[in-house]
Amino acid sequence: MARPWNFSAGPSALPLEVLEQAAREMTNWHGSGMSVMEMSHRGKHFTQIRDEAVADLRELLSVPENFHILFMQGGATAENAIVPMNLIGRNGAGKADYVLSGSWSNKSYKEAQRYGDIAVAASSGAAAEIDGAQYGPWTWFPAPETWRVRSDAAYLHLCGNETIGGVEFTDWPDMAGLGAPDVPLVVDASSHFLSRPIDFTRVGMVYAGAQKNAGPAGVTVVIVRDDLIGHALPICPSAFDYANVAAAGSMFNTPPTYAIYIAGLVFKWLKRQGGVAAIEAQNIRKAEALYSFLDASNFYITAVHGPVRSRMNVPFFLKDDALNAEFLAQAEARGLMQLKGHKSVGGMRASLYNAVPFEGVQALISFMQEFERQYG
Ligand SMILES: *Cc1c(COP(=O)(O)O)cnc(C)c1O
């Protein structure tokens, strides 16, 4: 059977080369006589795997030396609690502000309320008129000039890419310009991590569950500036205290060794592709192809405000949603998998992560053209 095109939102497509390398190394990693799954995390083999993964990631994203790269567990969902437990105590005020732009940022906001005085800095939860056009809730992004950031907030949280709604925001402001120079920006980058560069002069912390764009489920990447750690609340579990995890080189407890190994192979694959700038160019090409096709069609519809359309997750609708089941069945028969939209949004969603090549997007567009000819 030919390998299908996988548009899953997560866990999602991994590069075939990575899977094949892992298969070759499954029972005997580099002559060690062991699978990576069977090794002591403190032995020389796994230490090397961890060190290379950290170094490759630092190189790929040009992570400055004053940022720690941590491998943790619990996914981005656990970070919704781990972030406030680590950061909210840093200046004594016990406050944090959240920008709400869709499902994931709302979950982060809700969880944080257990740990302090949490306020909404801005929200796209209402319909809006932008440049004369109407946009529904969670299909646009509040402009930074409208954010209300408390100058004594311990941090400001936002979700860089709303995986469900398909809203991506990367024009991160200089917090001094918003009257809050001491408030670091914390970004949930789960679903666009490694799809584009990150400006580390604009963020204090970025976190990402690996299973969208960086590897398998089970490992969460945390990149945090060193002055932000060491302030964990007393209730913070020791294993989730960034200071402990950093001091132990992500081995305060047994790390998810196999997931780190596979993520490390993805990092090496990305370097072979030419790095993040090269993959970003491909991601732009893929997203432009699909969005321009959707914009030209009267059969398919998109809802997200143009400037914040996600390159990674493209929700779209058939004008006649009675055709949804037939669309999905025919797509699957053509090897175009996991296109069903999230239940809270409906319709379809094509996730175009790094491991989905341009040919996959072309295959999707030609199927969509054919389907339109058949039913339009
Ligand atoms: C998937 C996702 C999460 C949740 O990740 P888990 O690994 O399931 O905890 C959080 N934020 C964003 C943006 C996501 O895409």
UniProtKB/TrEMBL annotation:
Positions that bind pyridoxal 5'-phosphate: A76, T77, W104, T163, D188, Q211, N253, T254
Residues annotated with N6-(pyridoxal phosphate)lysine modification: K212
EC number per UniProt: 2.6.1.52
Residues annotated as domain Aminotransferase class V: 5-364
One Gene Ontology molecular-function label: O-phospho-L-serine:2-oxoglutarate aminotransferase activity
Keyword match Transferase: yes
This protein's pathway: Cofactor biosynthesis; pyridoxine 5'-phosphate biosynthesis; pyridoxine 5'-phosphate from D-erythrose 4-phosphate: step 3/5; Amino-acid biosynthesis; L-serine biosynthesis; L-serine from 3-phospho-D-glycerate: step 2/3
Main location: cytoplasm
Subunit organization: Homodimer.
HAMAP family, alphabetized: SerC_aminotrans_5
Family of this protein: Belongs to the class-V pyridoxal-phosphate-dependent aminotransferase family. SerC subfamily.
Protein name as catalogued: Phosphoserine aminotransferase
Source organism of this protein record: Yanghanlia caeni
Name of the gene encoding the protein in the UniProt record: serC
